[in-house]
Amino acid sequence: MNIRDFRLPFLFLAFWLLSACSKKEWDDYYGRPDWLGAPIYQQLEERQNFKSFLALADKAGYKTILSSQGWWTLFAPNDAAFSLYFKENGIGSVDQISVKDAQAIVKYSLVIDAYRKDQLTNYQVAGGGQPNMAYKRRTAYYDFVKDGPNAQYKKIVDGNSTAKDGVNSGAYIANDNNNKHIPYFIQGFMDNKQLTAADYNAVFPNITYSGFNVAGSSVVNADILAENGVIHEIDHVITPLKNIDDELATRPEYSAFKKLLDDYMVSYVENADLTSRYKVLTGATDKVFVKLYSSALAFAPNSENFTNNTTDPQMDGFSLVAPSNTAMNEYLYNPQTGILRKFKSFDAAPASVLNDFLRSHMWSASLWHSQLKTLPNAQNERATFDLADVREEKIMSNGMFYGVDNVQRANVFSTTYSVPYLDPAYLLFVRALEETSVKYSLINPNRKFTIFTISDSQFAQANITYSSQYIKWVYTLNGVEQNAQASQTRAHRIVQNSIINGDLPSLSGRGLLLTYNDEYIKYDNGKLYGAGNEDVGDVATVTSSENTINGHAYSTSGIIKFTEKEIGFHLQKLAASDPANFSHFYNYLLNSVVYNATTQVITGTSTGTSYTIFVPTNAAIEDAVRKGLLPGNASTGAPTFAPAQDQIEKVSKFIKYHILNKKTIADDGKPDDATAVETLLASLDGEKEYVNVTKQTSSLRLLDSKGNFVTTNQVLSNNLSNRTLIHSINKVLEYAD
């Protein structure tokens, strides 16, 4: 025997030893663990109390799937659960369940991926799970083609659009089967959301909350580990929950609400791919349409998706509150109080009225029983109806459904904003409110307002219209159309000057009002006027009023007008009408270097900025002349309005120091703390001179730079100008040297 032959047996022995060792290590690392049970189907067979479910799985064609590789969570009803199911449905065995229903029960009990009880409350997001956040999982069940509403749309599938930030995408997502979700209620989630057994029993009133419920069942044996997933034994058979849309369709007591959705918010779009799939599966040649809900809604009631994140349905869902026909019709069409009493129908109203009504009944979150009065809806408003109004509440596959004997009274229909909004005579007024975002202040029920509405015909009388064709405001001056920006600015200013912060239940007496636009207007026993009204000698007279939850809305026979005149115009007017108190100041101004008599503009002022002007009386100015503060005859106090060259600067400083810059302060008898306000006067290096102003009941109290106190003559004050008030004062203000 040669050397090679001699070594061969030893080589075989070494190979055998090494192989045996490798197989043991392989089995230790990769072998099937001893604790791992058989596949789901075989596990259920071994346990002997799932005979009905296994028969149902066989009938549904799911034996192979449940016996094979995969990764599932099965909520498996035991035989006792099926005995209850048979009794409730008047049948004797699985034999009397159709294949379609068998598939629905099995597939809906089957969750994609395997989860132990402690994993089910994890909301799955990129990077890991968030514990105690989830109460639903996506199942293997989905509705495919369903019967449509009529012969034109004979076969349909539900839309599967997503929603985000209160906006429904309104689009169909290809290759998304709109799988239904199954809810479960585990104590960790309930504690985290501050929910109790009462929240569970509100939607499943006949089931005891156990700390681990799946829909309307209790888990009696959790975390049965199988080779291809996890089994949770339950005590009731669960059939697929309807989505919100399907539930609404079966309830005639809410048919008026459903009709609004069907008539205005639903479209059917033919889908060639779904038509082809349907033909392959059934042989039928019917066209298949996707039922889509308008993006004007907060969500699509037939979509099983939530937001753009595919796992978001695990932690939340939609909620729809459906008012009964009686409650809804009363709220909409009552001749005295109905929100459509002036429009008569949604067809005649702006589309936003319907959108607001429907959206106010939609919550972009799960509206739990205990959170009914605290969770805001899609319009960020809390429920206005009470639990006593709730006829029923149900959990659906995609959220919550409430049937109520009331309506959600949206702020847009209850606040001062509602008065013009629900009247076809005020379309332009409403447009301006929306464009300036004033709307969002007016619909706040916690803030008080008074509004003076302006009708479309009143806008027309003011030569203002709106071009829907060119999408712009149009103001015509002397027959010439002004540019779009100037026209819009005019319309907005008129509207904002018709809104007052605070509720005025009565306009009797006389007073000064600060508008939303920080301008002042006046009222006098039901008559209203701004500086523009005084310019032309007319008024706006109140003709009617309406009370709302946050203030009053008044109709008027005219518009409250702002002035387009310069401040100098109004000082000249005051000097002419009351020369004893205003003429000296105006004559100093007229002859000064800070005034353009042609344009009537005071140097340092600009259009659109707020000012307050303090005008010393003639007597006060004459006293200042005697003291040498102003040019004139120191013996007699007679002013010199055209001073010598060395006195010109003194007059300029005098005028500028009597004008508060960027602030209008009213002498309205509303006491307030002192505030230092800059004037138009500044040193050469730009340092401002200030006047301290304190609001008192009977006057404004001023403190000048020399420490002198000066008061306003209230009866002569509050004269209106361009974003300006002109007051009379009893002494000249002295600035620092």
What is the strand tally?
A: 39
Largest sheet: 7 strands, mixed
> What structural class is derived from the secondary structure elements?
alpha+beta
Calculate the mean pLDDT score and round it.
Answer: 93
Which strand order do you get reading across the main beta sheet?
A: 2-1-13-12-11-10-5
End-to-end CA span? 130 Å
Proportion in β-strands: 15-25%
Radius of gyration: 39 Å
Q: Report low-confidence residues grouped into runs of 5 or more.
A: 1-24
List the helices and strands and how they pair.
Blueprint: H1 3-30, H2 40-47, H3 51-60, H4 63-67, E1 72-77, H5 79-89, H6 99-108, E2 110-112, H7 117-120, E3 123-125, E4 128-130, E5 136-138, E6 146-147, E7 155-158, E8 163-164, E9 167-168, E10 181-186, H8 187-192, H9 197-203, E11 212-214, E12 217-226, E13 229-234, H10 244-249, H11 255-264, E14 266-270, H12 272-282, E15 288-293, E16 318-323, H13 325-333, H14 351-359, E17 362-363, E18 390-396, E19 399-404, H15 418-421, H16 427-435, H17 439-442, E20 449-453, H18 456-461, E21 464-467, E22 472-477, E23 480-481, H19 484-496, E24 499-501, E25 510-514, E26 520-524, E27 527-529, H20 531-536, E28 540-548, E29 551-556, H21 567-577, H22 579-590, E30 595-596, E31 601-602, E32 611-616, H23 618-626, H24 648-657, E33 659-661, E34 672-682, E35 688-695, E36 700-703, E37 709-711, E38 719-721, E39 724-729
Parallel strand pairs: 1-13, 7-15, 16-19, 20-29, 32-39
Antiparallel strand pairs: 1-2, 3-4, 5-10, 6-7, 8-9, 10-11, 11-12, 12-13, 14-15, 16-17, 18-19, 20-24, 21-22, 22-23, 25-26, 26-27, 27-28, 28-29, 30-31, 32-33, 34-35, 35-36, 36-37, 38-39
Helix pairs in contact: 3-6, 16-19, 21-22
